Amino acid sequence: MLAACGGSDGGSRDGTTSGKDAKKILPAYVASNVVTPDIPSKNGSAVGFTSKLDLAGLKTSVPEKLGKGGKVTVMSPFWGSPPKDGNAYYTSMNELIGVDVVWQNQDGNTYDQKLGAVLASSEVPDVVVVPGWNMTGKIPSAVISKFADLGPYLSGDAVKDYPNLAAIPTDAWQRSIFGGKLRGLPMPSSYVTGIVPLYRQDIFEKEGYEVPRSCDEFLALAKEATSAKAKRWACLDMKWTAFNAFGVLSGEEKSLGWNEVDGKLIYRIETEEYLEALEWTRKLFAAGVVHPDAALGKSNANDPGPKFAAGEFIIYNQDSSQWWSRTAEQAVQNPEFKIWGMDVFGHDGGDPTLWAKNPAGIFAFVNKKASEAVIRDVLAVANVTAAPYGTKEYMATNYGVEGTHYTVKDGVPTKTDQGNIDVMNAFVMIASPAATIAHPDFPEVAKGQVEWQQRMGAFTRKSSFYGMQITEPARYTNLSNDFEQLEDDVVRGRKKISDVQQAVSDWKSKGGDELRDWYRKILDENGTAAG
């Protein structure tokens, strides 16, 4: 089943599985009809919920406990202070599922080191969560050698024993194939870019600014809005938006940066668009319209929240989740404050060309040595945590116990102090429903986010290796590592575009051209997921 593409690197570890081979092992897709979203998915968007939450009317998506009472240990990244064992959230979830889940929470910021050590040892927990950004170095090959094939339990119609898992989109399962076998339980995400140019809509309205529709309009607005004397600048480092405006292939994951053009595979850093995007971002810095914080540091290194709220700059690009989090944090003390997302513009004022990101980013794996009973108990956990919004199981997973972990007022659930301690990133890491956006406290933001994804999704294309789980041979691992620092130096005027051109030339001769041939072989053997 595996396309062995690795040559001397032990081919069975490298490459991917797609096309006919993947179809045999992918779970059947059965859409959930338990809850109807207010805004259905379109153009790859999340589904959206904008109505008040009717707690009395919550649906049940898991009518009977599937867990058989076994004990399952889970190692997962955790950001913040993990709650005490035996807290009310963990015990209520275990009771709901019928499994005794024991958490081994590890610091999310140093998780890659912990992961490497545990996977190299003989003491691997029953379940290990691996975020996509930790899939580097030896981790992908450890995934293949240490974790179970879930195909016998989930491939084809077998998944129908777990209806919430059957409703996970096929693209997300495709990403969960490692080494020719279905090994991961995915956390699905929208394939539309998550990077939104966020702006102070209230200041735009007050000053009469128009939302720009081209790179020239953006620069003109930025100059008008900047007054160093008044301690206001237009923006932070807009490099990520520039890449989208110029149609540069995704830099989120190495395989997404390749695309076939006129029969030739091209990598993102080899394109004219890449250089043009850097040159335009350099112009913003040179014009003095970028906040001094960003001019000094790396791209968006510090928390931009306080200075954005103070109006020191009025545009920045960041993950769309900040659309809601900034709204929520300013709602009480700053009622005038309004953040919104501007549509990505084509650099010349036309439609943009955007590139799809991968449809799942975090995976839970089951130990290869686990018994069938343990695997079934893990799937029972996943079938609860993947319940859709608007169900009892979703509320239990994401909010905990009513009264203890959250209260509800006017259809808006609000976490208590105890909820903020206990109900954190644990059970949500096992498996999740199809990408969902819901903010009962700010439904207009949920609507804005989903509609933004739908509009941008209409301009989103899939590059040649979209959705494939690809492990590059180790000899190429660090080949393009220095480009991010080089980009940051170029846009800040410390290096020149010619330095980038030289670096691309070096990249080709040091292995880039060989890597192209390696990817070509994958494409020839597997076909493409592009569209």
TrEMBL record:
Cellular compartments annotated: Cell envelope
A Pfam family annotated for this UniProt entry: SBP_bac_8
Primary site of residence: other
PANTHER family: ARABINOSE-BINDING PROTEIN-RELATED, SN-GLYCEROL-3-PHOSPHATE-BINDING PERIPLASMIC PROTEIN UGPB
Organism annotation: Streptomyces pilosus
A GO CC annotation given for this chain: cell envelope
Alphabetized UniProt keyword annotations: Lipoprotein, Signal, Transport
InterPro entries assigned to the protein according to its UniProt record, in alphabetical order: Bact_solute-bd_prot1 (IPR050490), SBP (IPR006059)
Family per record: Belongs to the bacterial solute-binding protein 1 family.
Source domain of life: Bacteria
Protein name: Lipoprotein
